[in-house]
């Protein structure tokens, strides 16, 4: 029997192929980035792995064709990247460039499964390729909160990243291969490294505070860099389906129910998925952004007011349909004063 996901969102099968773990592109300093030169009817990337964005009769990407004049950047993780869209032209940067804020080209500068450290690092590593930057919109925040549940030894100084457990396991195996057995009192001693004890998940309030502080720490880096170029910086707290509304469209109920049968979403992220958690996180981000003089916009309540219950916005709880991308693009243009 065909799954609801395959029936309602066949484009997601192409994203599964694009993001298959056997094809992970490991990249120094970033840990990982997208496959390069990927071609399909759903998603296409350039020679560096950036997704191609579309304007009226034009295309552009950071590692491909670039406009000569100023550009605008749309940064973030997988939602900003456009997971869920049926074509490159349906992503948020493409809809902004084509329809809602077309005066200057928009580049898709997002990274699949990135945290705020990786988002900022991506800009640092590739900003030298770009022409003049007029506007930077960072559409993010969710991954830092989701990853805040990791133990402190995995989060380290700059926050946890997805699949970091596998990374640390591989690094320990590498250390073990290079480790020499020490000599103790004339005999060889067996040396073992015990794995850290499993730590309890920090309380929700602590995770919200941690994620907000980490996010704004890196936004301050964005602000300093943007200030050198004269670009305006805006941070948009990305939506989560359960932060937007409690009653979902019929298609969403089918997709979410099927996904819940195969995933551990509620056991891992159930406490951060409530509306109360979303509001608390938004307030923490807003307060921290105000102190650093960074423009902050929580799109969740605005999106909630803009849609009807039957409007199908999400392919899963974090990623949009084409209609969802279009509605969000219109709200961003109106709310951020983009032309």
TrEMBL record:
It comes from the Bacteria. Gene3D superfamilies: SGNH hydrolase. SUPFAM superfamilies: SGNH hydrolase. This is Inducer of phenazine A. It comes from Streptosporangium longisporum.
């Amino acid at each position: 029997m065909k799954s609801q996901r395959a029936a309602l969102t066949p484009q997601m099968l192409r994203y599964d192929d694009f993001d298959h773990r056997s094809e992970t592109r490991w990249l120094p300093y970033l840990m990982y980035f997208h496959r390069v030169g990927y071609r399909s009817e759903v998603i296409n990337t350039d020679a560096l792995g950036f997704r191609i964005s579309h304007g009226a009769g034009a295309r552009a990407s950071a590692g491909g064709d670039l406009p000569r004049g100023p550009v605008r950047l749309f940064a973030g993780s997988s939602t900003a990247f456009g997971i869920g869209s049926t074509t490159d032209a349906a992503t948020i940067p493409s809809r902004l460039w084509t329809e809602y804020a077309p005066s200057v080209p928009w580049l898709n500068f997002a990274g699949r499964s990135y945290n705020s450290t990786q988002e900022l690092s991506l800009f640092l590593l590739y900003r030298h390729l770009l022409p003049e930057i007029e506007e930077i919109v960072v559409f993010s925040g969710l991954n830092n909160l989701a990853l805040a549940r990791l133990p402190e030894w995995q989060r380290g100084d700059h926050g946890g990243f997805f699949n970091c457990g596998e990374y640390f396991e591989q690094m320990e195996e590498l250390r073990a291969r290079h480790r020499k057995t020490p000599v103790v009192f004339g005999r060889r001693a067996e040396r073992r490294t015990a794995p850290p004890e499993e730590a309890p998940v920090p309380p929700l309030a602590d995770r919200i505070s941690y994620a907000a502080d980490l996010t704004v720490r890196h936004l301050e880096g964005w602000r300093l860099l943007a200030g050198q170029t004269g670009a305006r910086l805006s941070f948009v707290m990305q939506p989560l389906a359960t932060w937007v509304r409690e009653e979902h469209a019929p298609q969403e109920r089918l997709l979410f129910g099927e996904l819940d049968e195969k995933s551990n979403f509620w056991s891992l992220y159930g406490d951060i998925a409530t509306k109360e958690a979303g509001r608390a996180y938004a307030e923490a981000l807003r307060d921290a952004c105000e102190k650093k003089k960074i423009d902050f916009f929580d799109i969740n309540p605005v999106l909630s007011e803009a849609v009807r219950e039957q409007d199908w916005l999400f392919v899963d709880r974090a990623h949009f349909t084409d209609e969802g991308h279009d509605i969000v693009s219109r709200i961003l243009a109106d709310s951020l004063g983009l032309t």
